[in-house]
Amino acid sequence: TDLDTFVAGLPKAELHLHIEGSLEPEQMFALAQRNGIAIPFGTVEELRAAYSFSRLQDFLDIYYQGADVLRAEDDFRDLALAYFDRAAADNVRHAEIFFDPQTHTDRGVPFDVVMRGLLAGMAEAEGRHGLTSKLILCFLRHLDEDAAFATLKMAEPWVDRLAAVGLDSSEVGHPPEKFARVFERAGAMGLKRVAHAGEEGPPDYVRQALDLLHIDRLDHGNRALEDAALVARLAREKMTLTVCPLSNLKLCVVDHLDTHPMRAMLDAGLRATVNSDDPAYFGGYVNDNFRALAATGRLSRADFVTLAKNSFLGSFLDDATIARHV
Ligand code: ADE
Ligand code: ZN
Fold first, then answer.
1. Cβ of residue 200 lying under 6 Å from some atom of ligand 1
2. Nearest bound ligand to CA 199?
3. How many domains does the chain fold into?
4. Is 16 a known ligand-binding residue?
5. Atom 6 in ligand 1: which residue has the minimum CA distance?
6. Where in this chain does the entry annotate a coiled-coil region (predicted)?
7. Order of strands across the sheet that contains 92-99
8. Is 278 in the pocket of ligand 1 (CB under 6 A)?
9. Is any ligand 1 atom within 6 A of the Cβ of residue 203?
10. pTM score, whole prediction
């Protein structure tokens, strides 16, 4: 439809994308072959058929397993480039991508190999598409505080190449407070701070992310809507929410996109954005997420313009660059 074409054409930034979650089954098989690794699926179709989840943990188990094919610097470069090619086709002009170093260093892949590969892909994408990008180092919250501190230590020589730290993986049972001291240290290193909160976890986890992690941006935030005072605060503080509609659907955070909280978020004056999270696993890149929202008929052209502008306003680009984009 017309609205589909309109939303697809909007210039946008992507602020919630796990690069390991952009590993398509075809590329997983190709990297497995290149690295001489056996994967427990016979075909791309068999693998895709396994992508049926009823909660976050179902997905995480298969996502960490998939990342095992990533071994060499070129694997990380090729992964990033494949994502940027797709993003550029969706009119993404800037992307702030998450990576999970512990998933790799715990398998014996050096931190520096991951960094060099991702940075090579980012540089090549900027040359190829003019698509700029930044890196956000995520700590796995199911691991302990010591492991997060050790990862932050590995990041020290690379601090100028990182925009922020983030917090992801299994939310419930791993509240933000567990990482308050790590985030304090990251802030002292000059890094911005973001955290997944309120995806499956309660509104109190969102409040902890604000008060104890001092976040600059909130990833997901769906369950904040259960608490009116918290919603008012997020609006007042102009906190950016990186919302992921197709992810929410696939992980059963919402029952149906017709009842997705995006409408309520915009009505509450929240600075919400549209993002793809783990597109290879959830069935769509950023324009698929925009079109899925358009199909509900509950958002107007003006709403989509707001969402696309919010993605630049909520980015970690400098003010002059943001002004050129919006
Ligand atoms: N890691 C990758 N995607 C994630 C998500 N949606 N929530 C938590 N951790 C993740
Ligand atoms: Zn995520």
1. no
2. 1
3. 1
4. yes
5. 277
6. none
7. 12-18, 92-99, 132-140, 164-168, 192-197, 217-220, 240-243, 271-274
8. yes
9. no
10. 0.98
CB 283 within 8 A of CB 25: no
Q: What is the 3-state secondary structure (H, E, C) of 239-271?
A: CEEEECHHHHHHCCCCCCHHHCCHHHHHHCCCE
**Could you say which ligand is closest to the alpha carbon of residue 22?**
1
Protein residue closest via CA to atom 9 of ligand 1: 169
Ligand 1 contacts CB of residue 277 (under 6 A): yes
Per-residue pLDDT tens listing for the chain (326 residues): 899 999 999 999 999 999 999 999 999 999 999 999 999 999 999 999 999 999 999 999 999 999 999 999 999 999 999 999 999 999 999 999 999 999 999 999 999 999 999 999 999 999 999 999 999 999 999 999 999 999 999 999 999 999 999 999 999 999 999 999 999 999 999 999 999 999 999 999 999 999 999 999 999 999 999 999 999 999 999 999 999 999 999 999 999 999 999 999 999 999 999 999 999 999 999 999 999 999 999 999 999 999 999 999 999 999 999 999 99
What's the ipTM? 0.98
Active site amino acids: 199
Q: Is 220 annotated as a binding residue?
A: no
Domain of residue 90 covers 2-325
